[in-house]
Write a structure and sequence with these properties.
Strand content: 5-15%
Number of helices: 10
Radius of gyration: 19 Å
CATH superfamily of the largest domain: 2-enoyl-CoA Hydratase, Chain A, domain 1
Largest sheet: 7 strands, mixed
Order of helices and strands: EEEHEHEEHEEHHEHEHHHH
CATH class of the largest domain: Alpha Beta
Number of domains: 2
Helix content: 40-55%
Length: 278
């Protein structure tokens, strides 16, 4: 699969701060509305090379040190990411190294204590689909296509696809996509729950930023704890999940936002609290 270089991002409502780059393949911009936009910049198809995965992990580590309100992951206006750099594939030993980079980078996104939204245009295949799956929400352009085509190379997904996809759309649908390697267009992806919203191509980044900014104005610490409760709870039994929820329910009452939210409700009613993110 080939493609021209990704276009530059669509114009957004607010002027972003200067780009923060840790390397040439991943750019991060912090916006005045509290949203950090992470963009993949690896022409021609945003191949998820070892270098890009290392940079992506480093960007989320840096964001973790100075948390934004929410994050949008974007691949440019033409495509999201067409998968791993097949030229870097090797033997089983090299597969362990490459797979480890996928796991570390996507795990950093999955456990990030703020909402992460994938803004997907064009192809999100293989590792690109797995990157989108590691995010909390997926907003897709009308031209988006998703798939796990690794089986066509005689291999299987190695960036969490067999696990996150099955949890998101169910085991039967996941097996269909993984066993056949077929691609699904945005409407089908929406119908099966693989994406959360489908918008025109020119609107996808703006819509993702709009939704991220709305969440960034909320109780972001509580969002992060709720995210942790949901994700950790899914890996165990219902009773284990309820124990995790109770632990984090107690923790959230130690935050300024919980105090502000309760006091605001008692004084002014619901939905009027001005949270501080602490």
């Amino acid at each position: 699969m080939t493609s021209s270089d990704p276009d530059s991002p669509a114009e957004t409502p607010d002027t972003p701060d200067a780009p923060d780059t840790l390397g040439p393949l991943v750019r991060c911009e912090r916006r005045p509305d509290g949203v950090a936009v992470v963009e993949l910049c690896n022409p021609k198809v945003n191949a998820l090379s070892k270098t890009l995965l290392t940079e992506l992990h480093a960007v989320f580590d840096r964001l973790h040190d100075d948390l934004p309100g929410a994050v949008v992951v974007h691949g440019g206006s033409r495509l999201f990411a067409a998968g791993a750099n097949i030229e870097e594939f090797g033997d089983a030993e090299q597969a362990a190294i490459y797979g480890g980079l996928f796991v570390k980078a996507f795990r950093a996104i999955e456990v990030f204590p703020r909402v992460v939204i994938a803004a997907v245009t064009g192809f999100a295949l293989g590792g690109g689909c797995e990157l989108a799956l590691a995010c909390d929400f997926r907003i897709a352009a009308e031209n988006a296509k998703f798939g796990q085509p690794e089986i066509l190379l005689g291999i299987i997904p190695g960036g969490g696809g067999t696990q996150r996809l099955a949890r998101l759309v169910g085991p039967a649908r996941a097996k269909d996509l993984i066993f056949t390697g077929r691609q699904v267009k945005a409407p089908e992806a929406l119908s099966m729950g693989l994406v959360d919203e489908v918008v025109p191509v020119d609107d996808v980044l703006n819509r993702a930023i709009e939704r991220a900014a709305e969440l960034a104005r909320g109780a972001v610490v509580a969002q992060g704890l709720a995210k942790q409760a949901i994700d950790r709870g899914l890996s165990g039994s219902l009773s284990d999940g309820i124990e995790i929820e109770q632990e984090l329910f107690v923790d959230v009452f130690r935050t300024d936002d919980a105090r502000i939210g309760v006091e605001s409700f008692l004084t002014n009613g619901p939905g009027k609290a001005a949270f501080t993110g602490r």
